[in-house]
Amino acid sequence: xxxxWLDRVPRWVLAVGPVGILAVVFALLYFTEPFxxxxxxxxxxxxxxxxxxxxxxxxxVIPVIIGMLWFPFIRDLEARYLHAFMALAxxxxxxxxxxxxxxxxxxxxxxxxxxVGIALVGLGFGATFAVMYGASTWRQRKMAATDKSGxxxxxxxxxxxxxxxxxxxxxxxxxxxxxxxxxxxxxxxxFIMHNVMEGPTxxxxxxxxxxxxxxxxxxxxxxxxxGPVILGGWIGSFAQSDLLAALFFAIAIGAILQVxxxxxxxxxxxxxxxxxxxxxxxxxxxxxxxxxxEDVLTELVLEGWLFPA
Length: 309
Fold this sequence. Notes:
- The structure is a single chain.
- The protein is mainly alpha-helical.
- It has one domain.
- It has helices at residues 2-7, 11-32, 45-68, 71-75, 79-110, 114-142, 150-177, 181-195, 198-203, 215-226, 228-238, 242-270, 277-302.
- Helix 5 runs antiparallel to helix 12 (242-270) and helix 7 runs parallel beside helix 11 (228-238).
- The relative contact order is 0.19.
- Keywords: Membrane, Transmembrane, Transmembrane helix.
């Protein structure tokens, strides 16, 4: 029933609709400033956890779900364009991995136990990649080639993005306990700007399946990808540690590497070649888009050029 209703919606509405919803969320946050009243100094532990839960949901889960609203538009693309969209998603993931590699080096350097940090990073990266690679290999042996499921790859993408989202929460939690609500709001706006791109990144693999999965899967993937912002906020407010942050980032990089292999295999299953001109072009677009959203616009927000306090 839902699919038949969506079939009657113009394509341009499916493409532009999530942008309109995102604009409404931005406006509500910017003009109402809902988190300026309560600071960590006059809040109980329960109140801090609750506020960080709400903030994390708005900065993490909601933008991912908004981005997933592009699924009906992506689903009806031709195979080659769908592969191109999956390549764009890979570009997003590679940018995130590169950014986190820099964060790993920074946190290890800032810690007082550099050798321990290097060991933790190596262990976190290697163990995560090995476990996910082993699970993927086992799954592929258990299922016939004709049953290769984009939904399972989408869950892996959501997991990798979720691990990355912990780092975002660490920043929010740290500023919250420092009683800097303006910085918290600016970080939220910045994270929302690029987290919305994680939604289509998650569902791109699902779009190549013949059947649309039940809505509960979309809800679950949204929580997996964006929910860890909440966990990161809790950790950042009560257990600030460079070694812990470096470990989380290393785990996320290991997960992303395995996900990239899965995405390439999924494209190869449907097409003769993974590296085509259009796939290469959209990969670069995905990387460049995240650079603009993550580095350029975030810097403009934090410097007050956009959304001045």
